[in-house]
Amino acid sequence: MTRKLIAALAATAAVGLAVPAFAGNLSQPKVEAPVAQPAPVAAAPMMTGDWTGAYAGLSMGYNHATTSPSIGSGSSGQAGIFGGYNYQFGRYVVGGEVGVNKAHANWGGNTLKTSYDAKLRGGVDLGKAMVYGTVGAKHAQDVHGVGTILGAGVDYKLTDRIILGGEADFTRWNNADNAGTDLKDTTLTARVAFKF
Questions:
Q1: pTM of the prediction?
Q2: Apex CA 145: angle with CA 107 and CA 138, to 5°?
Q3: What sign does the dihedral 100-101-104-105 (CA atoms) show?
Q4: What's the alpha-carbon Rg for the chain, to the nearest Å?
Q5: Is residue 152 part of a domain?
Q6: Is the C-alpha dihedral spanning 155, 156, 162, 167 positive or negative?
Q7: Taking 80 as the threshold, does the pLDDT of residue 137 lie above it?
Q8: Quick check: is 29 in a domain?
Q9: The domain spanning residue 191 has which CATH number?
Q10: Region of 10 on the Ramachandran plot (φ > 0 left; ψ -120 to 50 alpha; else beta)
Q11: What is the pLDDT of residues 26-74, one digit of tens each?
């Protein structure tokens, strides 16, 4: 009986010592790297072109004159000089411009030659480019009265000081020959300006 008791106690002790070996793994625990959270994405800054300042330049292009009622129309090249000032607030640009243009477009028995214009400009800054509209008045040699100008254009900053652009203007004179004939003048010009 004693031998059986000793054998039973020995077996119980062996099982008791073996149980902790099955309770876990003896290898080092693996620690997983923490997952990095992505950095918040900042909104891209708005690009602005800093259009404030005075400018002066040259233009060259095309001039087409027609009349209503029709007494004749004509086209010619056109060259001019201009100068103005822009002021920027936020994304918007406002300014004024004056210019002198030379053309030789015949209309009826007359010729559209030297003209003088004054325009207000309003535009939107797109960074290196600006799109704008114009409204103003034009006086021309041998044309009766003052014409009304409506136009649109785009300027592009080649450098901080040199601006390339293009502009389309439409001018209408009521009673341009003082005999009831209206004159419509369309100009398309390429422009280069220096900003001061």
A1: 0.74
A2: 80
A3: negative
A4: 41
A5: yes
A6: negative
A7: yes
A8: no
A9: 2.40.160.20
A10: alpha
A11: 566 676 666 667 666 655 455 567 999 999 999 999 999 999 998 889 9
Residue whose tokens read 């073996």:
18
Of 100, 167, 195, give the one whose Cα is nearest residue 140.
100
- Expressed as residue numbers, the domain containing 184 is 53-195
Cis before 45 (ω within 30): no
Residue 9 lies in a domain: no
User: Among residues 95, 72, 65, 103, which one has the least CA distance to residue 155?
Assistant: 95
Domain presence at residue 32: no
Which residue pairs from 168-173 have beta carbons closer than 8 angstroms and sit at least 24 positions apart in sequence?
169/134, 171/117, 171/138, 171/147, 172/147, 172/148, 173/140, 173/143, 173/144, 173/145, 173/146, 173/147
Total domains, the chain: 1
Q: How far apart are CA 2 and CA 5, in angstroms?
A: 5
| DSSP designation for 12 | H
